[in-house]
TrEMBL record, chain A:
GO CC, any one term: plasma membrane
Keyword Glycoprotein included in the entry's annotation: no
Bilayer topology annotation: Multi-pass membrane protein
Subcellular location: Cell membrane
Keywords annotated in UniProt: Cell membrane, Membrane, Transmembrane, Transmembrane helix, Transport
Record-stated family: Belongs to the binding-protein-dependent transport system permease family.
Organism in which the protein naturally occurs: Nonomuraea maritima
SUPFAM superfamilies: MetI-like (SSF161098)
Protein name: Putative aldouronate transport system permease protein
Keyword Transport: yes
One Pfam family per UniProt: BPD_transp_1
UniProtKB/TrEMBL annotation, chain B:
Pfam family, one: BPD_transp_1
Protein name per Swiss-Prot or TrEMBL: Putative aldouronate transport system permease protein
UniProt source species: Nonomuraea maritima
Domain of life of the organism encoding this protein: Bacteria
GO cellular component: plasma membrane
Family: Belongs to the binding-protein-dependent transport system permease family.
Lineage: Bacteria, Bacillati, Actinomycetota, Actinomycetes, Streptosporangiales
Annotated ranges, domain ABC transmembrane type-1: 79-274
Length: 324, 295
């Protein structure tokens, strides 16, 4: 860096300009670039079929969709699906559960990778650090079926914890099938699976902090706590804000597979969230219109949430996801 | 080895001890469930009964549960299915990703801007579950393995990562190849692929882990239990506690303990992840995430 700045400025070689300045006839360019277009074609086709057309297909939120009649034959019903959605107590229950889980995860889950990254960063032995990292990243790659199975084995009715309590004359805890603590269980599982993985981005943020700042702070008499508060934390702030915004945008998405796997154990009252509501209404019960309305509502509200969170970040003087 | 900067001074022993304790505890919390799984899977019926359903440290070892799994039950079939779907899916998805990444990597090519925006736009919006399901149904892919492979094959995120690596290849290599008369396909084979092996390996492994772990796809698209991959069978066996063994089919055959079969299944489902994990961690921090943070 420093070397570059002292060198005299040289104009960049005009290699790229040559291509753009010479106007090429469209057909010549098409012939030249046709292999590239062929290469992009499969990906574009798949995105068209499974992202773009389904996005347009969300119009069935405004239809009384009957699979036999299809998109063209089904009747338009305007906002009827939405009004029946809003009068459905199961929908409000699902929305409320989703909001509670998101709130719990932001309060309990979100700070864990940050603290873990700070702790890891203070480990001076590279070997130990790498070992701990490999161990705590691992659960991220396991499927939810495995994670739930592991939790059942340790915390379930016949699991390690409850057998231990029973053999030591204490009363067992009902953890895996208790509707009252289900949301805490979900959060614990999410932390176990992804808190370690989440440290990566914060570790990178800490590594990007100029070490001179720590040195200067130490010379000025700052202790470990003060260095954390005045150097590390401000250095991580843009990333923390970015991750928080992304998390807020995902507010309405809470561990779909994770909840689907455990919904039967605690019942829909405690476990129904927007995604499972959509699944059971649409695919299982065949209320296509209402289910799609719920899905569409979720998509639109998520987008608005990201934009709002980003706006707030700009107000507070942060950069956010995109620049102003 | 120690990377502590000189100005920091020596930390107090008590701080080191507390830190080591905290990290050990964290690692133990991650590792302990796996210990229980492995131990229970190789334990005998008596020990499981004596402990009431699980074993932390097996006193005697038996591999009956693993033999049972690979002995022609629904589980063996589901393992074959999972391996097949993962292999074909990864190859297909990786091919689409690399082709699109190279096709979109040259700034002056025809329609490049438009097509790139087309791909990037999908990062912002996810279509709802129902319209995608109806699409899969419309295309006649319900109850076929293609429904597990094709809808999730292309991710804009993966394309962006691979494209970034291709663009970082020194542009003299492309010029030299072109000078020698190589066409785009030849350049892809002789310049792009050899120079982006690392990123292709990592993206491929992430894709493979995704296919291997897929649970909701088969639940949504496959009605026939005969076609179920491992994750769904594992749910039935372990979470629904519904273990079918060869004992029903062969009279006089003593099946291994149900708990051992369940835990052997979990171990088998974890094994491929553990095998690819060292490669993942090796390359992970290298480019992928430094690129993410540069923004």
């Amino acid at each position: 860096m420093a070397v570059n700045q002292t060198l005299p400025r040289v104009n960049p070689p005009p290699e790229n300009k040559l291509h753009t300045q010479r106007k090429m006839p469209f057909l010549t360019k098409l012939w030249r670039d046709s292999p590239l277009l062929v290469m992009v074609a499969p990906a574009v086709l798949i995105l068209l079929l499974f992202t773009y057309i389904p996005l347009l297909g969300s119009v069935i939120a405004f239809m009384d969709y009957v699979p036999f009649l299809g998109f063209t034959g089904s009747e338009w019903v305007g906002w009827a699906n939405f009004s029946s959605l809003f009068s459905d107590t199961a929908f409000w229950n699902a929305l409320w559960n989703t909001a509670q889980i998101t709130l719990l995860q932001i309060v309990l889950f979100f700070p864990v990778p940050i603290l873990l990254a700070v702790l890891l960063n203070t480990v001076a032995m590279p070997m130990a650090k790498r070992f701990v990292q490999s161990v705590i990243y691992l659960p991220h790659f396991l499927s939810w079926v495995i994670i739930v199975a592991l939790f059942q084995q340790v915390l379930g009715g016949n699991g390690v914890l409850n057998r231990f309590l029973l053999t030591h004359d204490m009363s067992p805890f009902e953890i895996m099938s208790n509707p009252d603590t289900f949301k805490l269980l979900l959060t614990t599982q999410a932390i176990w699976k992804d808190a370690g993985w989440g440290t990566i981005i914060f570790l990178a943020a800490i590594a990007a902090i100029n070490p001179g700042l720590y040195e200067a702070a130490t010379i000025d008499g700052a202790g470990a706590w003060q260095r954390f508060w005045h150097v590390t934390l401000p250095g991580m702030r843009p990333i923390i804000v970015l991750m928080l915004i992304l998390r807020l945008g995902d507010s309405l998405t809470v561990g779909f597979e994770q909840i689907l796997l455990q919904r039967d154990a605690v019942g829909p009252g405690a476990a129904e969230v927007l995604d499972t509501f959509t699944y059971f209404n649409g695919v299982v019960d065949g209320s296509w219109g209402t289910a799609t309305a719920a899905g569409l509502l979720k998509g639109v509200v998520s987008l608005l949430l990201v934009l709002a969170a980003n706006k707030l970040a700009h107000r507070l003087g942060e950069e956010g996801v995109y620049r102003r | 080895m120690n990377t502590r900067p000189v100005w920091l001074g020596k930390p107090r022993p008590i701080a080191i001890a507390l830190k080591a304790l905290a990290l050990t505890l964290i690692c133990a919390v991650v590792v302990f469930p796996f210990l229980v799984v492995i131990s229970t899977s190789i334990a005998t019926q008596q020990q499981i009964d004596a402990n009431g359903g699980y074993v932390i440290w097996p006193t005697s070892v038996s591999f009956e549960a693993y033999k049972e799994i690979f002995n022609g039950t629904q589980v063996s079939r589901s393992i074959v299915i999972s391996v097949g779907v993962t292999a074909v899916g990864t190859a297909f998805s990786l091919a689409c990703t690399v082709l699109a990444a190279y096709g979109l990597s040259r700034r002056q090519s025809l329609f490049q801007r438009g097509l790139l925006s087309f791909v990037l736009f999908t990062l912002l919006f996810a279509p709802g579950m129902i319209p995608v399901y109806l699409m899969v149904k419309q295309l006649g892919m319900l109850n076929t393995y293609w429904s597990l492979i094709i809808p999730t094959a292309v991710s804009a995120f993966n394309i962006v990562i691979v494209r970034g690596f291709i663009q970082a290849i020194p542009h003299e290599l492309f010029d030299a190849a072109r000078m020698d008369g190589a066409g785009e396909w030849r350049i892809l084979r002789s310049v792009v692929l050899p120079n982006s092996k690392a990123v292709i390996a990592v993206v491929g492994l992430f894709i493979a882990v995704g296919y291997w772990n897929n649970y909701f796809g088969p639940l949504l698209y496959l009605n026939d239990t005969e076609m179920w991959p491992l994750q769904l069978v594992m749910r039935t066996f372990v979470l629904d506690n519904n273990v079918t063994t060869n004992a029903q089919a062969i009279p006089g055959y003593v099946a291994p303990p149900a708990q051992s079969v369940q835990m052997a299944l979990v171990a088998i489902a974890t094994l491929p992840i553990l095998c690819v994990y060292p490669f993942l961690t090796k390359h992970m921090s290298k480019g992928m995430l430094t690129g993410a943070i540069k923004g």
